[in-house]
Specification:
By secondary structure, this protein is of the alpha+beta class. It has a single domain, classed as Oxidoreductase, molybdopterin-binding domain (Sulfite Oxidase, Chain A, domain 2, Alpha-Beta Complex), CATH 3.90.420.10. Helices cover 26% and strands 33% of the residues. The protein contains 4 helices and 10 strands; from the N terminus they run H-E-E-H-E-E-H-E-E-H-E-E-E-E. The protein has helices at residues 2-27, 45-50, 73-79, 111-114; strands at residues 30-35, 41-44, 54-59, 65-72, 95-101, 106-110, 124-129, 132-133, 142-144, 158-165. Strands 2-1-10-5-6 form a 5-stranded mixed β-sheet. Strands 3, 4, 7, 8 and 9 form a 5-stranded antiparallel β-sheet that branches. The longest helix is centred in the first third of the chain and has 26 residues, at 2-27. The structure holds the ligand Nc1nc2c(c(=O)[nH]1)N[C@H]1C(S)=C(S)[C@@H](COP(=O)(O)O)O[C@H]1N2 and molybdenum atom. The site of the ligand Nc1nc2c(c(=O)[nH]1)N[C@H]1C(S)=C(S)[C@@H](COP(=O)(O)O)O[C@H]1N2 has 12 residues, from loops.
Length: 168
């Protein structure tokens, strides 16, 4: 009889811990990559931290320059199998990248704006600025778009990359 109680306690303990883990995983901030991709992705801060970083400078609204370190968006799109580089021609040039943020803010790029065979600018998904991790109201991922006169597309708390064909 005692054994049955032990088993039940163990059983409920297991259910509880697995539910807790499932919950903490969905609560962890991530960036998903979806749409016209061959390999949809979900990247967490730990995944981004492991990837090769680049640093770019972006002007803030008050005109001061700040450095941002992160993973080039091109690398992320390549991982997801988006038609970049030699595949970015013909109808693929009418695809766009929509970047969505936690507060509902959205910004848009043509794929050519992200591709270094077209542009010298490197758009980065940053996880740190001026040598420090992004503050919680900006992070864990902020887009850093260099070479722009205002930081309106350098959107913070990025949650989604969506690649689609522009349609009339
Ligand atoms: N998620 C999110 N990012 C955003 C915005 C926003 O409303 N939501 N505003 C943008 C605009 S319009 C500007 S000008 C800059 C302001 O950045 P700053 O406070 O670093 O100057 O953030 C950009 N990033
Ligand atoms: Mo702005």
């Amino acid at each position: 009889m005692r054994c049955i109680y032990c088993f039940l306690i163990f059983f409920f303990f297991m259910i509880n811990t697995s539910l807790l883990f499932a919950q903490s995983d969905t609560l962890k901030p991530s960036v998903t990559v979806d749409g016209e991709v061959t390999k949809p992705l979900k990247l967490y801060a730990a995944d981004i931290a492991k990837m090769k970083h680049s640093t770019v400078n972006v002007l803030s609204r008050d005109g001061k320059e700040h450095s941002y370190s992160g993973v080039p968006v091109l690398e992320i799109l390549n991982m997801a199998g988006v038609t970049m580089g030699k595949d970015l021609h013909g109808e693929n040039l009418s695809k766009y990248l929509l970047v969505k943020c936690a507060d509902g803010y959205e910004v848009l790029f043509s794929l050519a704006e992200i591709d270094t065979t077209f542009t010298n600018r490197t758009v980065v998904l940053a996880d740190s600025t001026d040598g420090k991790l992004l503050p919680s109201d900006r992070g864990p991922f902020q887009l850093a778009v260099p070479g722009e006169k205002k930081p309106a597309r350098s959107c913070f708390q990025v949650t989604e990359f969506i690649v689609k064909f522009a349609k009339e």
